Amino acid sequence: MMALFNNILAGAAGSGGAGDYEIERSLRFNTDDSAYLNHTPTAAGDRRIFTYSTWVKRSSISDPTEDALFSVGVSPNNLFEFNSSGRISLTGNSPTVDLKTDALLRDPSAWYHIVLAVDTTQSTPSDTVKLYVNGVEVTVFFRDTYPAQNSEFLFNNNQEHFIGGWNTGRYLNGYLADTHFIDGQALDPTDFGKFDDNGVWQPIEYAGTYGTNGFHLFDFANVSGIGEDSSGNDNDWTVNNITNIEANN
């Protein structure tokens, strides 16, 4: 089996009243299968202001490799990933950026909601890139090189993008669910989730707009629909080395 789907009830399953938004399935990426998605926008979007939001569950923390979440280009490149130590990191040399969280996210049984919000028009360096984990902004970094004001990322350029890998490596070993890309807005995690009455971060339905190159990957009901964009933009993704389905309760 090259890949599988895993049922999760992330919103309605919360007993603390977070709402009735239900994520029914997640997409399994197997490192050994070199499984990933790829897409090339037809034209460049806003490369200074954008948001990437996804739920992720790592299958293993013992492999001495990096697990790419979202990436673009070969060289120069922009890469958003779990690095080998278990830190969430954003690196690249177009523009120069090197942000690595201080905390190690190494629980393979946990779902993490990760939000990357970029707005390089901001004059304060720490406001140009904001990273959130389960609704809380990350403020302590192992490394903290921010991009220059008004610099443009390769993210949202009209070149190949990857989910679950980077070019020909760093394949994700884990699950992704409810993945959004918002072109032209730097959003807060509260646009995608909220704390329930028990203080547990839960997903909510995103009610905003996506911009030209924005997309939403949500409906993993069958292989043919894995890469279909649910945002209404038809920014569909190509599926690579994902061929089988298995739904687990």
Low-pLDDT runs of 5+ residues are 1-5, 7-17
Q: Which band does the percent of strand residues land in?
A: 35-45%
Q: Which percent range fits the helix content?
A: under 10%
Indicate the mean pLDDT.
88
**Count of helical stretches:** 1
How does the major sheet shape up?
Answer: 8 strands, antiparallel
Structural class: mainly beta
Order of helices and strands: EEEEEEEEEHEEEEEEEEE
Question: Total number of β-strand segments?
Answer: 18
The gyration radius over C-alpha positions equals 17 Å
Report the end-to-end length measured between terminal Cα atoms: 18 Å
Determine the oligomeric state from the structure: single chain
What is the global morphology?
globular
Summarize the structure in words:
With 249 residues, this protein is mainly beta. 2% of the residues lie in helices and 36% in strands. The protein contains one helix and 18 strands. It has one helix at 125-128, and strands spanning 5-7, 25-29, 36-39, 49-58, 67-72, 78-82, 88-93, 96-101, 112-119, 129-133, 136-137, 141-145, 161-163, 174-183, 193-195, 201-203, 215-217, 238-240. Strands 1, 2, 4, 9, 10, 11, 14 and 17 form an eight-stranded antiparallel β-sheet that branches. The longest helix is centred in the middle third of the chain and has 4 residues, at 125-128. The chain is globular and about 45 Å long. The two termini are 18 Å apart.
Set out the fold topology:
Elements (H helix, E strand, L loop, with lengths): L4 E3 L17 E5 L6 E4 L9 E10 L8 E6 L5 E5 L5 E6 L2 E6 L10 E8 L5 H4 E5 L2 E2 L3 E5 L15 E3 L10 E10 L9 E3 L5 E3 L11 E3 L20 E3 L9
